Amino acid sequence: MKIGKVHSWKKVFAQVLLLVVPTALLAFYLLWNVNRYYDILQNDWMRQGLYFGAGMLIATVFYGYRFRFITTAALLFAFYFIGYRMVARMQVGEFDAFFVSIRFMVFAILFSLGWITGFGFSRSRYYTVFWSVFLLAAQIIVVSKSPNINAQALISAIVPLLVYAVYIIYAAELIRNMNEDERGFAWFITKRVGGFGVILLLLVLGVFTLFKKDFLAIEKEWGDGKGGNYDKNKGNSESMTKQNRDGSMGNKDQTQLSGSLNKDKRLVFVARLDNFFPDGKTPNPLYFTAYYYTKFDTLTQTFETDSLMPANDLFKPDPSRIPLFFAKTDSTVIKNTHATKNRRVVNAEIYKTLLAANEYIAPSTAFFCQPVPVENAYKDQFKSAYRAKMWVSDLNSAYFIYNPAGNKMLENFQQERFSLLRQVTDWSGVDAAFMKYYTFMPRDAEYDRIATLAKQITQKAGATTAMDKMIALRDYFLSKDSEGQPMFKYSNNPGIPGMPSANKLNYFLFENRKGYCAYYAGATLFMLRSLGIPSRVAAGFLTVDRSSKNPGWYWFYEDQAHAWVQVYFPGYGWIDFDTTIPDLETHEARQPDGTPPLNMQQAYLVADGKVTSVDTVTKKVQMTVEKMLFHDESYDAANNPVPLNVDASIATVTTDTGAVRLSAVKKGMHITAASYAEALKNMKPQGNDNVSSVVKRIPNPTPVDEIKIIEAESEKPTSKKDIFESVEPVDWLRVLWTILIAIAALAVIVLATPWLIWQFLHLRAKAGGSDRARTFRQYRAAMYYLNQLGYYRNQSGPQQYATETDARYSTGFSRFSNVYQKLKYSSLPLSEGEKAIVAQFYRPFIKTVRAKTPFKTRVSKFANIYHTIHYFTQPKIK
Predict the structure, then answer these.
(1) Beta-carbon contacts of residue 734 (< 8 Å; ≥ 6 apart)
(2) Is residue 207 a part of any domain in this protein?
(3) What angle do CA 331, 334, 337 make, to 5 degrees?
(4) What is the DSSP letter of 7?
(5) In a domain, 435, yes or no
(6) Element at 771 (helix H, strand E)
(7) Which spans are transmembrane here (predicted)?
(8) Most C-beta atoms within 10 A of its C-beta, which of 113, 471, 708, 798?
(9) Domain count, the chain
(10) Which residue has the higher pLDDT, 9 or 651?
(11) Can you give the residue range of the structural domain that contains 809?
């Protein structure tokens, strides 16, 4: 038996072209965006988009025939069940089976969603409305996880959905009302869709122009006023990093204990660390430190930095303010470590991708920063770079707590380390103010409970030295219950206590026992301090040695932002410890480590000073040199700057955000010019050299390879209090409200479109002109008005429709319709009587119809966009 059709091939083709294809393209975009935030999707958005598109295409064509949805859907789910059972029986490893089952689940969900969407496009008139609302809600959820909160990002995320929502509703109604037998069918569809696209574009531009100030206000309130920082984690969400308006990021100078932790997997920076074990081959990774949290706000439960902390050993320069190849050194931080035993200088190179230009991060204790250029081959990948030197303890390592099973060298290293630190038993020689500050903890019942727990743990373990007490606390977090299950677990969503003001650390230690690094570090800090052991929390990045291809190179992703504890041992200084239970999902995640930037060129000449003139045609720059490096010899001419003519024809010009054109260099700018020219290679410094004598010896103009623009530091708040006072606190509700207001405004404009069209036709109908023009305008306005009230002409003849209208409203529409038909199909002039009919028709007609239609009915009918769509897409009589 031949299966009947619901739609002709023309209508099915129109559904595929106008509904399925745009929806599939949008699905690719949305899935690409979602894959950035959910590891389980494995960044396979292309394949996932094909799953959805295939389901939608097949269903649209399939339901063009008279198939029942329930029956066919049951068969589809039976197919899923059989497929899943086959996957379960596959002879593969445990982890492979897991990932195969996840992929099959993703396929089933997306293909089913596409199948339902295809059915909705084919059979349901109102499915497009439901589908549009669903997509907008889903996109708002995804946008809420975005780290880049600015007007451009918000608009680019929402506009495609808004445009699609309005388009898909219009296109579905256009297809439903199309006349398949009309000649020029393709041109008819193209004309309608194209015209609608132009109108929609103008409407969208109008809406977002109107609300541009609101989006910019969000930028300002979430930023620091100079393109700076904002906190994307409001409400009950937290992050270990801060996000900047320009897309860069860095560590935060405080972290609040929260009910959930936001993580991302973007590459932040790459580092080469010249630190190896005694065999000279095995890398000894070190955590990279950004801040020390030494204070705790009990009201907000926030760990904070304190610039007044005793013996401040935090080196925090701004690399973007230091000229290329020139260095900033602070030996005070070395003195403040009070560390003399087992310490040495270690070198590192840091190459930034997302890390902000003004951020400095290095293993502790850093005391040296030297900005260096990025090789041309890597400039697209890395924005800037610097060298760091650190006063590092031989007892520090990223392997400092959890024994790497099977590696005897690392196990022996840990035991030797612990043995040395067990010898430290006396803190009596340490400054009393130092000890009081770093052993301080709040005194109330909640924190006394933490102290009691610490005492019980260490007494049970028989720990007498600070080192053994530290190990006992470590072992407590690793312990198991009576059933052999871990007592503590790592979780990005540890939950919150029942009372908002409840102590979150107590909730973590005594109730749910789930948390992320800040919870483990905070709990360890207070237990150590309650035992009289000076300690603090360090924040930065966890270092993971993932590759054997380039020993000593490490790749740091956003989800490696971390917090841990440092303990002070007299003579040895601050030593790193980490009691956080490993986050296996993060550590096992596949990260695309790449090729590091190798073979940096040697700069023979580096000149730092101000630009006096720029010639972009000849590519010459004149500058006055205030400081100079010549074959690593430093010369100063700040009191008497020396002019230098620079040849920039092959130079790469950069700022802290990347490469720019030579035209970006302006008179008065502070620049650093570096040269690798072979002509300078054999010009060695002489004993009596100064800037002036070097300039006289080198070629004129001097060829340079790098020009770095040192951007002027803008005014900004200097204290944390100023920052909080200069930025009005805003939460995500503001963002969502702005989006919803924009959506509502667009909806109002769409709903008002029928009335605006009517006003246009009404004004034209009342205007003067020739009899012919007036007749045509009045007829068109009258027909639109009746159509908008729900009285469609459909397949009725003109006279039949006019007669029915007269019967309904007691008007003279049929007489006027006869005059209109005469003018349309005949060249004969109108008689005086016919002219009188035209002159006396329109105003009384509209007045009569309006009087006999209740106000509420008129409003509801005119708000129905489907009536308008029907008017412009109604089929014609052949």
Answers:
(1) 218, 221
(2) no
(3) 150
(4) S
(5) no
(6) helix 771-788
(7) 12-32, 48-65, 72-92, 98-119, 126-143, 149-172, 193-211, 735-758
(8) 708
(9) 3
(10) 651
(11) 767-873
